[in-house]
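dumping this here before i forget
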Amino acid sequence: MKKYTVKEKRAIRQGLLFISPWLAGVIGFTLIPLLLAFGISLTDYNFLTKPRFVGLENYITMFAKDPLIWKSLGITFLYAIISVPLQLVFGFLLANLLNQKLKGIVAFRTLFYAPCLVAVVSSTLLWKQMLETEFGIINYLLGLIGIGKVSWLGQTGTIIASVVFISLWQSGKMIIINLSGLQAIPTAYYEAADLDGCSRWRQVFYITLPMMSPTIFMNLLIGLIGAFKTFTQIKILTDGGPSNASLVYMLYIYKTAFTNYKLGYANAMSILLFVIVGILTVFVFRTSNKWVHYGSE
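structure:
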């Protein structure tokens, strides 16, 4: 066992002191709630009576007796598969456009970021009125070009498409992150490529994308976690309807806990979500060494 010198011990104590607020936050707001959630998931608890220990009964019910689990997970995966790649591409393309040195470009950057400053509830209520089948402005505009009325909030496909479009409209944070990544790329690389006669497209594929890969990697993780936490928009737009056609997993957890008062079962569902997101996160990290390139490499 390594013996530390007095100086090294003092440095370790100082380091622990500096990170102690972060450690307290992780322990108090992450580890302890996670352990409590797992403990409650082993009980039958409805807020009104004392928790009754039932062992793995909630997990057995979840995997073997509740078809809505798999339906809600399927809808959530469908949303994630569609929305995350679109957000990455949309955010990258718009960031490139907003990175141009043009007069008034700051105003355009502000306009694209502005939707992020609007409360999610307020903006979703506005979109709900716009997507309304009979009197919504979107169907009215489509009618002007000869397209019939679309029940945007009436079936799974169009509901998911609507939520994806709203998420793109609110992707200003991802655009700003991409913009900061683009501006961190040294211009010397592009100047050298111009001297060598490299086309703009080749510069994108051989300079921009490799140098932007750490930023894309971060946006991918944020997008994946955000997709599986989707709740507010669906809750306001459809509340999971019609006939559970838009019942995303987070909304199902909410209804289980606060409508059906099955807190133990809802915590078991939350643990499953934690495991799924954890597996996806580990997978993204494990594969990142094949496509993420840092400046020192």
